[in-house]
Amino acid sequence: MAPRGNSTLTRLARTLASRGCALDAACLLTEACVELAGVDAAGVLVTAGPARPRVIAATDSGLFDAFHAVQADLDLRTTTEEPGEPATVYAAPATRIGQWPRLARFAAAHGIRALCTVPMRAFGVPVGTLVLVCRRAPVLTAAELDAAHGWAVIAAAGMLADAAADALPNTASPLTQYGAFHDQITVWQAAGALAARRGVDIPTASAALRRHAVDDSQPLARSAREVLAWTPEARDAFSGDDRDARVAVVEADPFVSKCLAGMLREEGFEVITAATVHDARGQRANPPPVAVIDQLLPGAVEFGRDLAAGGTRVITMSAVPAGQPPPGAAVLLHRPIPPARVVAAVRRLHPAAREQVPA
């Protein structure tokens, strides 16, 4: 039975009417779905380009991080017999292990009895997929699945409206800019408040705030509002040791730098780029846990040694076919080298690297 269906619709309507962003609508959708008796966890996935769908909101971020790694077993866009209709795409592990072996092992490991997908479509446009995880019996009823489908359609419409608002004439664009500016001010205020409470500098507080938003699968502005309100949940979240996820990339080639930075951000790292050693020297005052440095840049050896003395694990890249790592370097990689190998080295050395689900 759908709990407080009208309340959920009201909250969605208020979010959209107040010019809430797409991520707000997705988060609200997942929070509403886990109130259904048959649902234990919910997540929203969207596809951008040829990549596998990515999780933008989830009530259990760890579970959906693991789910993201096994999506190769199924195409969420083709799991329904009728376009736009919900479907139970996984049930009864013993009978599905031949069809979706990795998904079956994932379900067994997490005690999942059924996995349902609800296409998020609005105005005939596919926006994403709502995934519902069920661990108990009986699983979702038809009424619960219908309620989730209705909420997903409304959330999808809001996400489309959010994407299109900047293209609308008259007041829409100024309102969008105002909303974004207001959110940015909130984030700046929260970073300052967090820095004062924890006795750290602004960049460290900002990085902690961003990690909190990513870990909780929620908009950055929402995490900022929690910090400003200093709720018990915020105090608990920020009371432990700060997980510094920074990685410095010092590379003259803009294409290589952009590629590495993009891949490292996909891994959850906070990337700081610089084209010269001179531009990167500010990092010595607050050394990042890991730095990737082009060894042939002027001053690179001395800079790497200085960072290593401050506790940074230094990865150097060199076009010289042979040789020893420079003083203080943890790893020496010989060029040409695939960016994936550099990312693997960062993941291996970085203390804040997330655990990866085995293939």
Looking at how many chains there are and whether they match, the oligomeric state comes to single chain
The helix-strand sequence is HHEEHEHHEEHHHHHEHEHEHEEH
Q: Give the tally of structural domains.
A: 2
The CATH C-level class name of the largest domain = Alpha Beta
Strand order of the largest sheet: 2-1-5-4-3
Radius of gyration: 23 Å
Domain GAF: 29-148
Pfam family, one: GAF
Protein name: GAF domain-containing protein
InterPro entries: CheY-like_superfamily, GAF, GAF-like_dom_sf, WH-like_DNA-bd_sf
How would you characterize the overall build of this protein?
There is one protein chain. The chain is an alpha/beta fold. The chain folds into two domains: 4-161 and 175-223, 2-Layer Sandwich (Beta-Lactamase), CATH 3.30.450.40; 246-353, Rossmann fold. Helix content is 46%, strand content 17%. The chain has helices at 5-17, 22-33, 61-68, 93-96, 101-110, 142-164, 172-198, 202-215, 220-229, 232-237, 254-266, 277-280, 300-309, 339-349, and strands at 41-46, 54-58, 87-91, 114-122, 125-134, 246-250, 270-274, 290-294, 313-318, 329-334. The strands form two sheets. A five-stranded antiparallel sheet has the order 2-1-5-4-3. β8 (290-294), α13 (300-309) and β9 (313-318) form a beta-alpha-beta unit. α1 (5-17) packs antiparallel against α2, α1 packs parallel to α6 and α7 (172-198) crosses α8 (202-215). It is globular. The model is unreliable at 77-82 and 354-359 (pLDDT under 50). Residues 29-148 form the GAF domain. This is GAF domain-containing protein.
